[in-house]
Every structure is written in C-alpha cells, then in structure tokens.
Amino acid sequence: MASKGTTTVSTVKTDDGVNLHVKVLGDDSTKKKPLLISLHGAPGLSTHMEPEASFAFLSDIFRVLVYDARGSGISDHIGPYTHDRWIKDVEILREWAGAEKFVLAGASYGSFIALDYAVLHGDRLNGLILRGAWADGKLGPMNALANILTSPKVKVDKARQVRVWSGTLHNDEDYSAALQEILPFYTPPEDESATATKEEKPESTEFLGVVKLYSATQNFAFSVNMPRFDVRDQLHTIKAPTLVVVGRHDHVTPVEYSQEIADKIPHARLEIFEKSGHSPPSDEPQKFEAVLADWLKAEVLPALK
C-alpha cells in the first residue's frame, strides 16, 4: 500500500485470488468520511482514471474509491467477467473500505453493473449515480450500432463495428482499431463543446488512462452479459436516491433510455446536459460538478449526519 497525499494506492486481493488495483481519494484513516465507489465503463478499455477525473472533486467530503475492474487496466485479467462476479468485487471493496452503506456511481458500462447491484443490494446504498445508462441489454447495443453505422461523424468498418457490439472481436488489435474509428461519435458537435479547448480536454473521460486494450473482457461483456441484462421490470424496487445523468448528444445511450430509468426509479432525478455527448464530466465539467454537489447536498448528505 502506498500513500500520495490524501490518495492511497492499494492492491486488494479478492476471495478467488484476483488482484484489483484500487485508489482511495481523500483517504481517512479513521474512516469517518462516507464512502463513494465509482465504476468505470468500457470493459477491457477504460480504467480507474475515468472515475478519478470525474469524482476527485468530492474527496474533501467522501472517501472516493476508484479501481480497475478485473479484466481492465492493471488489475488481473482473470475471469469470470460476469455481472455477478463484478458485483461481488464491489462488495469485497465495500467491506475492505469498512463501510456498511455507501454511494455507488456507474459510468456507461459501469452503470449497468451499478443497476444490477442496486437491484440486488439496494439496502446498502445511500445513493446511486448513473451516467450514460440503458436498462435493456438487448436493445441498447443494437441501437448504438445502428446509430454508429448511420452517423455522418464517423466512417467505420461496418463488420468491425458489428464485432465490437456483438462481442466477437478477433483480438486486441481489432478492438483498438474499432475504438479509434468511433471516438468522434462519443463527443458533442463542435459548436456545443464546453469552454475547454480541444487540446485541454480528452475526447472522453471514458478512455482516459488506456495503455492496452483487452478484447476478451469486451467480448464476454457484450456476447454473454448484455443479452442477459434487463432491469426494466425491477427499477421500481430501487429505493436509494438516484441521479441519472445523460448528454443531449449522447447517441450511444440516448436520452430516452435515461428518461425511462428515471421514470421507473421512485426517487430519481434526471439531469440532461445540453452541450454534452456520452461524457458530461468532460464535456461540461463545471456543470457536472455543480449538479452533483447540489444533488448530494439535497438528497444524500442530510441522511448521513
């Protein structure tokens, strides 16, 4: 374990021997601060750096725990890569952090795991934050693929994009090529971009920290997990205060998907970011931080006192 200021970097071993690379921002040795765990998106592609960039500003109030999920980043690449296993890893990290209850945030694919967690373990949540979500794993990927294939923003190898969204990539190089050709699809139109310059802002926080891509993780997620993922009829059971965030120009997880989720979760607030694509935290960072801080102050923090 190594400490850097108020950040602690650890390797946490799970019950099946897998090592997870974990960072806790705003670490508190007394563990008096409430815990927020944030799940990155893009299995086999994204890392802890995406949620770290999005939620570091909360480290004065929360212990913000971010990590590379098994199969991603520098955590071990040992399956299974099922939602049940990824959820069990969340539980291990919650217990490791010494929290009975916590706030769970999920971005993009991480929001699917967060939704499944909320259905299974809703009594352990002080709050739920979802960004770029859908509730139907059969319809969602097919709609994303259709939007990519008809988008004027990108020119793609159609067969390769079919492989991405069906979980049948040939190898890691195939995954890398597929990603490179669709990066512009994740961003808002140029005239809707936030005040940050293109040089100052990455294409999307979704892909921060990528060193190597792992197609095996992506393939399992989209060939096995997604066809089984459907929480539409269970959303009403989620009782935790929920913030649902989506960009107006998000064509991967369009606004109507977030609207459906917010409508069915009893205590949910939908926030549409009018100048954002798939990643409001990087497209409209100031607004994202303000909205999140306001929601936490109104819906979550009072219950923690």
TrEMBL record:
Signal peptide: none annotated. It holds the Pfam family Abhydrolase_1. It comes from the Eukaryota. Belongs to the peptidase S33 family. It comes from Exophiala sideris. This is AB hydrolase-1 domain-containing protein. Gene3D superfamilies: alpha/beta hydrolase. Residues 34-284 form the AB hydrolase-1 domain. Keywords: Hydrolase.
